[in-house]
## 1
Amino acid sequence: MEFSLALSTWAGLLTLVVLEVVLGIDNLIFVAILSEKLPPNQRDKARLIGLGLALVMRLALLSLISWVATLNSPIINNQFFVLSVRDIILLCGGCFLLFKTTIELHERLENNYHENAENKNYAGFWAVVIQIVILDAVFSLDAIITAVGMVNELLIMMLAVIIATILMSFASKKLTNFVNLHQTVVVLCLSFLLMIGFSLVTEALKFCIPKGYLYAAIGFSILIEIFNQIASHNFMKNQSRRPMRQRAAEAILRLMIKEKNNNQTTKNATQNNKKEINSAESEKEKETFKEEEKYMINSVLTLAGRSIRSIMTPRSNISWVNTEKNIDEIRIQLLDTPHSLFPVCKGELDEIIGIVRAKELLIAIEKKIDVYTFASKIPPIIIPDTLDPIDLLGVLRRAQGSFVIVSNEFGVVQGLITPLDVLEAIAGEFPDADETPDIIQENNSWLVKGETDLHSLQQLLNTKKLIQENNYASLGGLLIAQKGQLPIPGEVIYIDPFHFHIVKATEYRIDLVRIIKNQDEC
């Protein structure tokens, strides 16, 4: 009754069962590999028979080692230490555990895992079973020595081994998958082995450490690992609720940022040696992304998170044909404007009749065809300003080289989008012949148009502090929102770490801004 009621006995049994299961992970991995060589209908049978026979062998080894461990008569006795056969076994076993655990930890930390070689030809049933038994015997040595080091009663050791083998038999597949997904558990248990091995060595040398200390340390570590696994599970659960596209984009962007930081570190570390700089930079030149490639990758990955308004050509920049003008004015407009496509409207931009090509409309005018009648044959494609940019690509394909009109919920035209606008959103600006670039860099500052797209500007300035809301898509919209009203020329608006100097503005909009980065941040 004292055996069954002793709290330390139950604690030792529970701890030993857990360790026996964990130490059997290598066994399970090899059992899984070997069983895969059999036909599917024989795999479970071979796994159970192999582990059952291995249990018998393990109990035999355990009985033998336990008997030897009872030999306490000193065989080495001098002024430094006294060693019995049991002490020598414990000392050798402890050193073996320390050595094996160190090797295993090194392999785990260096990512040198067991590799699975595929075998398409099925092996013989009993050949696989025999291999399972032999491999289990080989990998059971550390488990047997651990059992001797943890508790002193043979019955406790055997009971722990039997329970652990039964658990592994029923949960071999799940345990193997769990370990493959949670390598921290393996590292934690290998750390336990280091403690047990050290305990065996100190016990053999008569520097005994109370086993209660080991149980407390192991129990506390297991509790922390349980919390870690719960936190990881909750994190992955929350991550799975986010769109896959957003998670993939963030992962790739983090890799690019890490690569950029590594490149900068390498460059700073080799500044004192010009030859090393040249060779390192030439190697990086081959391996890493170019700046334009990073810009385009970033733009593609963030395209889905942008608004249609940040891509479109705004209403104020649209050149349109008014059917209420006379033919000569329309002809001059078509010849003087470099655009090839025009929306044709009646009186105002919101009354769109159709979309025409300048060349075709000029030919129609020469043939005395009515402009209104000609334009009405090609109706416009109108999309809402709330459309997902990814869906926009399909709409543009249906437009067959034309453009689409962006309208709000009240039917007021907000702008238009051409395939070139999408390309500029991805690769950067391509100014027309009659346009100046939206962003001009001058020494340590940038001269930027107020209508400049915030996404492009944010990438150029290498910051994430500009786009905080979806209520604005341009630099002018950002500064107006920041100020609370339309700023006047000469005003300075500070958004850490940039100073925005208003260079030119009217009563209705911001035309030109000079951006200067705070020197403390450079």
Note: The two ends are 76 Å apart (CA to CA).
## 2
Amino acid sequence: MVQTGFHRRDEPEEQDRLVAWAEDVGLLRMRERRRGPAPGRHTGSGVVRGGYEPCLLALLRVAVSEDPGRGFPGRGFPTWLLESLARTGHLAQAAELAYATGGRTGPGDTLLALVEAAAHAGDLRGAQALAESIPERDAHDRALVALVPAWARSGERGRAVALAERVRYPHHWGRAWATLAKAEADRGDMAAALECAARADESASMAGGVASPDVLALLVEVAVVAGDAAWAAELADRMQSPAAPIGYDRRGGGLHPLARVLACEALQGDLRRIDALLTSPEESADADVDLPRTDGPDPAREDPEPDPDRFTHLLPDPSSGPLVDARVMADLVHAVAESADHDLALALADRAEGLLDTGAARHSHDLLEAVILLLAGRGHHLRAMALADRFDEPSLRSARQARIVREVARHGDVDRAEYLARAISDRPAAVVALLGVVHELARRGLLDRAQELAGSFTDAWDRDEALTAVVHGLARQGSMSRAESLASSIVHRAARARALASLVELSPPPRARRLAAQAVVLDGWAAVLDVLEPIVPRAAATVADQLGRRAPEHVSC
């Protein structure tokens, strides 16, 4: 089945959490060392007798009273706390706090986040009521657009259509219908998806212009999954037209729309458009190449010898000025990294290196890192290491070497990953790489080996971080007693609290409340709030109420 949506690989999905964690490991180490060691004898085990919920709520109130600023980087209630309220049935309270602490810019973006959080939690009626109450018209429209696919995914297609028809401003019409089309495609109703996609295309024309790049990208994805290759190609052509420039505001995150379109085509074996963009206009007029469909080398074989002439005729001329931005190419590599076969991955890596070699690629570091991770995950770690040497700054170079190690481990070759980690000359980077190996060993259930490697760290916090991964792995296997015992050996108070919090998610409610109480005693209320929703839905409301009553300086209620 053709993929209908793409995400950056550094988003916090299960397989990518390690990557997101490792980027902040230095800050995490500094912050948790500052919190100091855990108490030698008292770990809070006797605080909650029997694990009753009211006792845990009372403990949260005390913790907030003692340290109200814990978890607040600045003024006002953080959005994550308000979203937690919205997810646990306290949407009205979250909205009131958003209005009270919105500041000069107003609560528009925060309210939109609350609408999405409530909808994701299944409270579609509450989310719509909040959307209808937003006074600012553009924010009101954006909230309605966000709810259109949510209603469709719930099976309420009629309500979703009615909501799309109520969007006020023309510049939102295309996105409303395009997201509805994608929701229908995800549900498997291709006829409805194509109907809504055509409505999205028509709405853009009625609005007096052409569809925006992100809308065109959505329509291409729908057309591809619905099997309408001709329309998909037409939409992709329109994205490159002068009336629809490929520039994109990246502040909202996600992949560049053109990269999503190119990914749809690449995963079908069609690289003609990217080849045209990577060459001069004169050369692209004559370009008509297809991706060779061969079995290719065994991806498990370590650094297979490449054929030097294999892709020569497909690469751009280094003397020509490429028409595609390096960030678009980087997003393309990210989009297909997990789905591409071995030949496609290498073909894109060759093209990316060709773009880098032109010297005309702005933001080349983004593309360089994307290619490094792609090659490392495909068994070409030597080639990836050679590309990492392109980083002039030693700290950047060693950081990328650590990421290569983690990528090699994530794709299953933990022995080679450990060898590569120990070969990194920069000690902090080598430690980060070895921590990544421990996390991957624990994720794969190789817990004895992970614990043995964790014990080899000489620094106390590094050892604590490694043991946290082992604790979580033991809990996933059901060895809760052993996991708790190992957590109690963690030296730093904040690291031990994190380990206990990871057990909360995997424990039955009574045990989870007891573990959460220990974590609160160790490191305050912010250590566990995000894992309490399933067992103590009133936890976020209790914290918000206590903060509101105290009205500390950093909370402008």
Note: The first helix runs from residue 17 to 23.
## 3
Amino acid sequence: MPLACLIGLLIAQWFGPLQIISVTVFILIFTSIALRRVWPIVVIFGWLVASHTIVETQQQQFLYSQLAGEQRLTVLIDGLPERRERYTRVRLKVYLPDQPKLHQAKIRAYWPRYKPLPLPGSYWNIRIKMKPVVGQVNPGLFDYEHWLFHQKIAATGYITAAWANQRIESCLWCRATIDRWRFKRLERLSLSDLSANARPLVAAMSLGSSSDLTEYQWKLLRETGTVHLMVVSGLHSGIFYGLMLVLLLMAMGLLRKSPGGWRICLWGGMLAAVGYGLASGLGLSVFRSLLMLFLLTLCIVFGKRIAGFDRLFAAAAILLLVNPLAAGLAGFWLSFSAVGIIYWIISGGGRHLSGWRGFVRFQLMLGVALLPMQLLVIGVGPVMAILANLLLVPLVSLLILPLSLVCGLLFEITPLTWLLNHLADFFWWWLELLQGKGLLFASGSFLLKLIGLILVFIALIPLAWQWRGALLISGLLLAFNQQVIKPQQLIVELMDVGHGQALIVRDDKHLILLDTGPALGNFSSAERVLLPYLQARGYSQIDLLVLSHLDMRHVGGAGVLATAMPAKLTLAGNAKQINQKWSLNALPCKTGDSYQLGDIRVSVVLAKTTGSEDKQSCAIAINYGKSRILVMGDLDRVEEKRLLDNFQLTTNDQQLILLPGKQGAKNASSERFVKQINPQIVLISTGFKITNELPDRNVLQRYHLNDAQLFSTACDGMIQLVVDAGGSVKQIATSRLENQYWRLPRRASCRRLSSG
């Protein structure tokens, strides 16, 4: 059934409602002939998920059209406020009596920093400026739009006119009552004696709140593969269920001797686990674990023996009936895969898993077996996760989690608080020790391929069948799931970084990066987009980094890259200012300078050194065979005229790929410039529906009159071009697909890009 749901989602993604109806008629006819077969029922189940997806998508599109611009709404504070270092974000549920269709809509909005945090479950009359959900689309990285769709969030925005916002009333008897209790517990924890290292652990493990985790701590968890320890999951629920069962059996020793005493203890532990799930927010993995615990309790109470895999599939079917769209989430597959692998390991080698050696063997087998699913679902699998979990899983299970439950759900006890502070210090110290050592990605270097072949070879040695299967699957995936650049081939990738620019140019031996994308507040495109993307492809150093000009939309990530992935050579349009800002050793761009990297030749065709700091930009030309990539930076029409008067940019036999100046603004790309250079492909990096919408209509018209192919990251996501040595563009790929069911349709707003 989970696979059928996934197939149903793919059907809804690639086909429309009419095709689905026709397929359904065929399935119903075929099912009537084979009523005794099981698989037609499973296929129909998958179709139901597809139909549900279509309905959900149509509902979301209706909400997108209604929740846009600045409006005054009556909203309910839904869930806990997300407190971060520089902002607070809340989830709002729309409540308008005259528009009941909007009651399903949720909005993710920024709350005014100078206002007190709103109480969950309270109604407010607010003025809010909204826009449709927008996310950057880069292959293999976090899909923000996908996540928002499954959270049923129809718009994002920020609250304006904070002085005019009014609290109306509170929701006394609703689900928000639990959130309010969680909110008050978090407020009390902020005043406790817990250290800065211990407070995030207690808040996350007991109350399901990640607000106290800093960006650095999140980075540690991601790079060491230990996010599951922080997010309340099946591990936490199972441990809590076991602890409560033991406590109830100890407390009810006399009752246990009676015929039904142990049944009471089992149901008491189940009720306690449900209460813990509600207190922690009832996430996907928690709901899965509660279903499996409930089925296990039923089996024990009624004396029925049901295999673990049957309970697992039953829980998956129930979860998909409640939330069919869960089949499209990575967490669904990772959660069920982890439990399935645990059953798989225990089923054949339970007697060999006792003692500390058995625990070590179990953790190693689980880490190796989980690696393929991590690579397939999220595209990254940290090797250090095996070593990190080997120590932290027992530490969290036996000490940190029980202490966090006591301090988070009940009350703080000074000796427990002291012990928890020291355990938390050790927890983060261990992660820092493992950080950045041995990261393993799905598409990487020759070393990664070699590791895969070694694992396949080891799998041929006589071992336990669980070991051999895990090693064989992991080795094959590592060895053959590689993205290798062929010789005599150039890859050009314009990353989707919003309103900014980051261009990657690479062949089989060299990596060139032009600009690093924006950095706004705690968000850095270099840290969230460029570094994960480049590291996933096996790069640890940049051969040439070009910073066109001192504009945070273009060079905001320079400091992050200088630390995590230093460049052998750096050029900058404002070298002096940029060196002072980030302590770099960048050389100034000088007109006429050129650098040879194998078959790639990088030339500075024009460097503007006068005017204000943000106007001192440089234009870069990259030659590969008979093709040329021209990046104009922030140069306007005046510099374009200088360029045309002093340099011969094109020849008749060249393929020209252009990144226009000022991202297609109206004061660049003059008519003379466009006609003379005659680009075949134009790439524009800009955000979706920004204040000064780019590119300009007149600029687009000029390029269309010259028969140029236009692409924009706002409409197409990341754009990848494959160029051969002869100068021909063999392949153009974009990351944003309009027929993906969770995508906000952008055809109307992007039509002028294709038509001019």
Note: The longest helix spans residues 39-66.
## 4
Amino acid sequence: MDEGRLPMTVRATTDWGVSDAIPGPRRNEVLSAVGYAMKARVNVALDPSTIENFETAAEKYVEYEPDSPRKPHHFNFFEAQPSIGLTTVADLWVSQHPLPELDTEIPWEVWLQPASEPRFRETLEIMGLKARRAIAFADVRVIGLSGTRRVFERLARGASIAQLRPASSLNSNIFQVPSGVQTAAVQAAARRITPAPQHSPAVCLLDTGVKADHPLLRTSIGYRGAVGGGGLDDWDGHGTQMAGIALFENLPEIVAERTPVQLTIGIESLSVQPPPGVVVGANLPAERVRQAVDSVEAAINRTRTFCFAMNAPDEPDDGGPSSLSSEVDELAFDVAGPRLFCVSAGNLTGTAAAGDYAALNETTGILSPAQAWNALTVAACTDLVSVPETHQPVASEGDLCPWSRTAVNWERRHKPPSKPDVVFEGGNQMIDIVSAAIGPHVDLCLLTTSSDSAAPLTLTGQTSAATAAVAGLCAKLQAEYPMLWPETIRGLVIHSCEHTEAMRARATAVARLRGSYQQAILERFGYGRPDRRRAMENAEDALTLITQCSLRPLRLNDDGNRAILGQMRYHTLP
């Protein structure tokens, strides 16, 4: 503990909350003010001389008469009837997640004021602990540190920590640094990246183009093309964002750490969506997709997964076939050369109101071309629920993200396929508890590459980001197992899926009212959320039967007037 400071927390006991105007000298350091109303607390590094000031201020408050001309200093502080005690981990904890067990080791984010960092480092040195280099913002330092809660109870006595959180898997704090610092960090990360060997499997982005000179992308871009009147450069920014999601599994970690990165896949870019105002004539989206696929396959012979993280909002969302979905179906199921397409389920438009996002999920149908039978259709779920204490996440952990569409309202007369196939992380939103206003938060988004040269990192989400991530997973499987067919890769991804507790709960609630549990869960979440590790192991280490062969299931009878069963294949299991 810093001998010159006392780690004290002022806690609310009434709905008045607490005031951060603590009685005492200016040497007192207010480290953080957390929560509101009855949950409010102020964490302070208290100068020992404050005790005397406290006594004086308290005496004046007690002596105050309501008809006195002036209220004493710190009247509001005492009027709120606060309680004061030594700071604990619970006082510093600002996450929605429960506090970890006393002896369970987890990764933590330690938030400090800049002036407090030397004091904290000194405490770490005394305890023999090592921490990562701090991520610096204008008024806060964030340090990653692993340890048990018992260790952090001792660290709290150092009177330096402002907040504690479980370490974010996004670590999107990187996004908040000044643009010059961000650019330098990205360039440093780029020097640590080794691109995949030439002709390795790739994610081919059918999008708005990709920024070719982005430091994190330029050595991995194997091909750029454009059809339908567009240019090679990313006019919208969407394609560059998808490139970062597809290529990197955890971009924040790559930027923040100093370890080398070996990539196993590359990326390709086909601009199939021209900028607004560009006249494309009779060139329909389906034709542009066909031309894009033909052009990249003619240019480079390599294994690839096509990522089509865009939709046709003007086409019906009732599950019936469209020209675009039919084209995707034909391209995917090409006897001469099957292709793997990952297609986004589409996003809700506008902002979901609090409490009704689930209803909107279920009344807005998956968009074209995601009804394609032979494409891997990706919707979006979320595990991102860490928000400030003044807010709560719109979507609960493990449920559909607030933007994702479903196949609940599809017209069954079309006999559509069961969609989506899988769901993946697409981010979340948060709602202000007091005002009910809904908005974004950096920790509820995904960090990715930007087409803006001045700010090479940006935030993204929704079903397009989920689709790009699944496409990246497919390409990495193709790199790991080059002999597997596109259909087999798709099967491995689906085979690795599991439904979360929130998904099962929603399907169970719906099934009580109408329909079956199986239908309820499939038309909202497909087969669930893929697991990267399980998908990789299923082809090698797990007990999984993979057979790649062909058969002709039907044939004409001897009279030639009726189709009958032709061939079958069976396997003896061990």
Note: DSSP finds 16 helices and 24 strands in the chain.
